Structures are given as structure tokens and as C-alpha cells.
Amino acid sequence: MTVLLHLDASARRTSLSRELSAAFADAWRSEHPGGGYVYRDLAADPIPFIGEGWTDLCDRVLAHGTTDLDHLADLVNSPAQEQAWAIVEPLLAEVRAADVILIGTPMYNYSIPASLKAWLDQITFPRMSLAPRRFLVTTARGGAYSPGAPKAIYDYQERYLRDFFAGHFAVQDSVFVNAELANSRQDPALAHLRDKHDASYAAALAAARRLGKEY
Ligand SMILES: Cc1cc2nc3c(=O)[nH]c(=O)nc-3n(C[C@H](O)[C@H](O)[C@H](O)COP(=O)(O)O)c2cc1C
User: Fold this and answer.
1) What average pLDDT does the chain have?
2) 3-state DSSP: the chain helix, strand, coil percent, rounded to 5?
3) Segment 17-54, tens digit of pLDDT
4) Fewer CB within 10 Å, N or C, the chain?
5) How many CB atoms neighbour CB 45 within 10 A?
């Protein structure tokens, strides 16, 4: 059975990155009626930040040279590590069971929300290898960061996630669907960019639907 893990990270309940991830998920689910689907709202149901128990466990992973995720639990050897593991284990199980990981995320301060970073920190251990899986990220950003845009070099959202998935998950072909210039919806000073935003959002929505059918 093929499984989709769907995460959303926007602090807004009504949000563009959520609309885009939902469009992908709806299309994917109608193409895979027998597929598995797991949803996590990282903003409404936040993952705790890692604590000392987690870092102790990570130190043990490094000291033992462990590379097999199945052996992580064997390294737990203190109450603090047990507490940390109780948070990590179900999150990691979701990731390992997923064939496709879909992340809807806003750009916050040129990067990703702390809610999403907390999830990444919890599930990532050094040198652990996962079977290949696909990553699809839908983003919304207030400004424009596409190649050629004056602020393109400040995009630490797509660049960070793309490099992270490549570095830690050996996934070189993660796909990003970005809706840009979203601040033109609220900021009168950016009203002249609203048409460009509408076109960017419409293209992103169409891409999310198309990719949901293809994955
Ligand atoms: C805390 C915060 C920080 C933001 N930082 C940026 C930023 O650095 N660059 C940018 O282009 N937009 C920024 N924005 C605008 C959001 O990216 C924009 O509102 C986007 O639509 C959010 O996605 P959402 O609609 O899924 O919530 C920020 C918004 C918030 C609330």
C-alpha cells in the first residue's frame, strides 16, 4: 500500500500553503483510493522542541556508530531518553511508512516556521538512512524569490529544505510549488503586484493538482 504523509505548518488556519497542500492531497487520494493517508497539523498540534534527552540519545547514536533506525530504541538508557524516544518513535514511524511526504509551509523570516523545524529536529538522526521516498513542498511567501527576483538570494526556505532532503534523506529531486507575492493581498503598498500574485497562486494550484495525480 502506498502512503502519503501530509504536514501543514502555517500558523493561519486559512492559508495559501495549506490550500496548495490540500489540492495535492485531494488529487493524490482520488488517484490512490486504497492508499494510506496520515495528516499532521504542526501548528495546531505542535511537536515539542528537542530537549536534553534527545541530545543524549543522539550522542549515543554517534558513539555507537549506529546507522540502522531499527536499533535506535536499543540505545535508550535513561528516563530522559525514554521521554524523548516516546516523542520521536511515532514521528519516525510515520516518516518511515510514507512513500510520499507532503509539506505545506509558509515562508517565515526567509525560512521555515519553528513548528516545521521542530519536526525536522525530532525525526533526524545523524547518518541514518531511509529508503528512498518523494518530497513535495507547497509554499507561500509574501514576496518574490524566483530566479531573477532581487530577493532570490534570501530564499532560505526552498534552498534549506531542498539541501536538507538531499543531505539527510538522499532525496535529490524534491519538488517545490511556490505561491509568491502573497503580501499583496494585505498590503496596500503592494496592491500593484496583486495580479502577479494571483497568477503565481493559480499556477501553483494547478501544479499541486497535477502533481497529486502524477505521484
Ligand atoms: C511571522 C511571519 C514572517 C514572515 N516572513 C516573511 C518573509 O521573510 N518573507 C516573505 O516573503 N514573506 C514573509 N511572511 C509572509 C508569509 O510568507 C505570507 O503571509 C504567506 O502567505 C504565509 O503562508 P500561509 O498563507 O500559508 O500562511 C511572513 C509572515 C509571517 C506571519
Assistant:
1) 96
2) 50, 15, 35
3) 999 999 999 999 999 999 999 999 999 999 999 999 99
4) N
5) 9
Residue 129 is predicted with a pLDDT of: 78
Domains in the chain, number: 1
Region label for 65, one of left (φ > 0), alpha (ψ between -120 and 50) or beta (otherwise) = left
Listed residue (75, 103, 79) closest to 169, CA to CA: 103
Task: Name residues whose C-beta falls within 8 Å of residue 32's C-beta, 6 or more positions apart in sequence.
Answer: 2, 4
Does some domain include residue 67?
A: no
CB of 178 closer than 6 angstroms to any ligand 1 atom: no
Q: Is any ligand 1 atom within 6 A of the Cβ of residue 143?
A: yes
pLDDT, tens digit, 9 for 90 and up, residues 118-165:
999 999 998 887 887 899 999 999 999 999 999 999 999 999 999 999
Does 142 contact ligand 1 (Cβ within 6 A)?
yes
64 lies in a domain?
no
Mutate to test the pocket of ligand 1, among 13, 18, 102, 109 (most ligand atoms within 8 A of CB): 109
Residue 78 lies inside a defined structural domain of this protein: no
> Which range marks the domain in which residue 152 is found?
3-45+94-214
Q: Which of 7, 18, 108, 177 to mutate for ligand 1's pocket (most ligand atoms within 8 Å of CB)?
A: 108
CATH of the domain at 169: 3.40.50.360
pLDDT at res. 128: 84
Residue 196 lies in a domain: yes
Residue 21 Cβ inside 6 Å of ligand 1? The answer reads no
Q: What is the pLDDT of residues 170-199, one digit of tens each?
A: 999 999 999 999 999 999 999 999 999 999
Ligand 1: atom nearest CA of 113 is 1
